[in-house]
Amino acid sequence: MSFQLNAIPLLSRAAVDRAEEIRADENALKEGWAKAGLLRVNRRGQVRFEGGALVLDAAAELSAEPSPAAVFLGVGDGRHLWAVRDDELSGALTDLRVVAGELDDFTAGLLSTAMALLNWHDKSGFSAYDGTTTVSVKGGWSRVTETGHEEFPRIDPAVICLIHDGGDRVLLARQHAWPKTLFSLLAGFVEAGESLERCVAREMREEVGLDVRDIHYLGSQPWPFPRSLMLGFAAVADPEQPLTFSDGEIAEAHWFTRAEVREALAAGDWSGQREGARLLLPGSISIARTIVESWAALD
Fold first, then answer.
1. Does 165 share its domain with 108?
2. Residue 272: its pLDDT value, please?
3. Lower CB count within 10 Å: N or C terminus of the chain?
4. How many domains does the chain have?
C-alpha cells in the first residue's frame, strides 16, 4: 500500500525571498545594510523572542557596512535580512526545535537558513582544497582562498524511511539516548557513490536487519542540525523477518499497528512525556512526524 505526504513538512514551507541576484552585488548589499534587520544566533542555535516574535536588531548597530561575519538571508518586509553569530546573546532565548510548531513559514525558513549557513562558516575557515585560509564573499554564500578557489555551503544528504508491512503495521525504532518510549523512523547518511534508494536499502539492513522493497520517495526537508537535508522514503518489509541491530545505533524496534500510532499522534508528541505511554512520537519540526501522520491517515 503506497502513500504520499498529506502535508508539506514544516521546515520545507520556507517563504523567505532569498534574493540570489543580490548576493554578488556589493553595492546593493551595502545600500540595503543601512536599514537591514539582523538576526543574532548563539552557538547553541538560540535566538531572542519577545512577545512571541523573533527579534531582529538593526544591522547598522553592528557595523557601518556589511560585516564579513554576517550572512545575507534574503529580503523580507522591504528590507534586507542578515544573521550573525553572537555568543554573548542574552534575554529570552529559545531555539528552532522548541518553537518550530508555533512559527509562521517565513520565520521558520529564516531561522533554518541562518543556522545552516552559520554552522557551515563555523567550520570552513580553512579550505578543504589546499588548507589555506578562506574569507566569506557573496553575502556569506561562498568562501574563497587567496588564490581564488571558491567553496560553497556544504549539505549532508540523509535518508529517513518509514518501513511498513504493506498493511496495518509500521516499524518504529528507538536510539539508545532517547526516552524509553520515544520511537521514530530509521535514518542514515548517504555515502559517496551511492544512490538514495541504495542508501535506504543499506541503512535499513544495517540498523534493523530488514530487507526492504517497493522503496518510493515522499519528500524532503532541510535539517540545519547542523547542515543536513532529510530525504523521506517509504518501503515495505516482512514483519516475520527477525530484527537485528548490528551497527549499535538502535536500542530497540517494534511493529506498531495503525490504531496504536493514531492514538499516539492524538496525544501529542514526546515533549509531553505522558506517564505510562507505550509510544511517544517526534514533534512537528521533524519530517518524521509528517511521514508518520500521512501513513496513519490511510484507511
1. no
2. 60
3. C
4. 2
Which pTM was predicted?
Answer: 0.94
What's residue 247's pLDDT?
A: 84
Residue 130 belongs to a domain: yes
Residues 6+ apart with CB under 8 A from 47: 39, 40, 41, 54, 55, 89, 93, 94, 95, 111
Determine the angle formed by the axes of helices 258-266 and 287-296, rounding to 10 degrees: 130
Residues 291, 258: Cα–Cα separation, whole Å: 13
Rounded distance, CA 93 to CA 98, Å?
11
- 230, containing H or E segment: strand 228-236
Supply the pLDDT for residue 271. 67
Residue-wise DSSP of 139-201: GGTEEE-TT--EE----EEEEEEEEE-SSSEEEEEEETTS-TTB-B-EEEEPPTT--HHHHHH
> Which residues are within 8 A (CB) of 95 and not within 5 positions of it... i.e. 6 or more apart?
44, 45, 46, 47
Write out the residue range of the structural domain in which residue 93 sits: 10-151
Question: Can you read off the three cell numbers belonging to residue 159?
Answer: 535518508
Residues of the chain with pLDDT under 70: 270-276
* Residues 123-148: tens digit of each pLDDT: 999 999 999 999 999 999 999 999 99
Contact 34/123 with Cβ under 8 angstroms? no
Q: Which residues are registered as beta bridge partners of 252?
A: 174
Beta bridge partners of 221: 230
Q: Integer distance in angstroms from the first to the last C-alpha of the chain?
A: 10
Q: Are 17 and 76 in contact (CB under 8 A)?
A: yes
Are 202 and 37 a contacting pair, CB within 8 Å?
Answer: no
Residue among 173, 154, 148 nearest 163 (CA): 173
**Cα separation, 194 vs 197, whole angstroms:** 8
